[in-house]
Amino acid sequence: MINVEIAKYQIEVQIWEYNDDKPELPRGLQVSSINISMGLTPSMPEEQDWFIFSISPHREIIDKTHKKRIFYGQTHTAFKLKLGKTIPTVELLFPLLHEAIGDFAKIYDERTKNTIIHHYKIEQPHIKEYRENIQLTIDKWIKAIRGIYHN
């Protein structure tokens, strides 16, 4: 059995812009679902058993009628993981991604109260939606690790 250690860094709000001068809901609103940027860092030479899983959820809302962005928000959450020499799996990383999206959703809910966009809730992620992107992130990490330790 593998002993996994996980430490979470504090969530950081990177960008949070809400620009709406109209109290009513515009007709041509385009609301994006949550988009995710994620990555794994190769371990540091002095901490070869550790790596960082970074997740940046972001969302954009456009008023197409007036051709302007009324909302853009992005947060960053990072987890430090110790796996020894084991390769991370989608099943290990997905709950962390789920947590990062939950963090974004809480901030979105708090900061959009009493605005016209508050009712556009953040949906809970499902592993089938993110499996491919998480695996791609793992594959890139493996390639980077091989490049570091085989040079």
Explained architecture:
By secondary structure, the chain is α+β, with helices and mostly antiparallel strands. The protein has one domain: SecB-like (Bacterial Protein-export protein SecB, Roll). It contains two helices and six strands; from the N terminus they run E-E-E-E-E-E-H-H. It has helices spanning 90-111, 127-149; strands spanning 5-8, 12-18, 29-31, 35-41, 50-63, 68-82. Strands 1, 2, 3, 4, 5 and 6 form a six-stranded antiparallel sheet that branches. Strand 4 and strand 5 (50-63) form a beta hairpin. It is elongated and about 55 Å long. The two termini are 31 Å apart. The model has no long low-confidence stretch (mean pLDDT 87).
Sheet with the most strands, sense and barrel status = 6 strands, antiparallel
What's the N-to-C terminus distance? Answer: 31 Å
CATH topology: Bacterial Protein-export protein SecB
Overall pLDDT score = 87
- Helix content bin: 25-40%
Identify the CATH architecture. Roll
**Topology, number of strands:** 6
Can you describe this structure in just a few lines?
This protein has 151 residues and is an alpha+beta fold. It is 30% helix and 33% strand.
Task: Provide the descriptors you would attach to this structure in a database record.
151 residues, Bacterial Protein-export protein SecB, six-stranded antiparallel sheet, 2 helices
List the helices and strands and how they pair.
Elements: E1 5-8, E2 12-18, E3 29-31, E4 35-41, E5 50-63, E6 68-82, H1 90-111, H2 127-149
Antiparallel strand pairs: 1-6, 2-6, 3-5, 4-5, 5-6
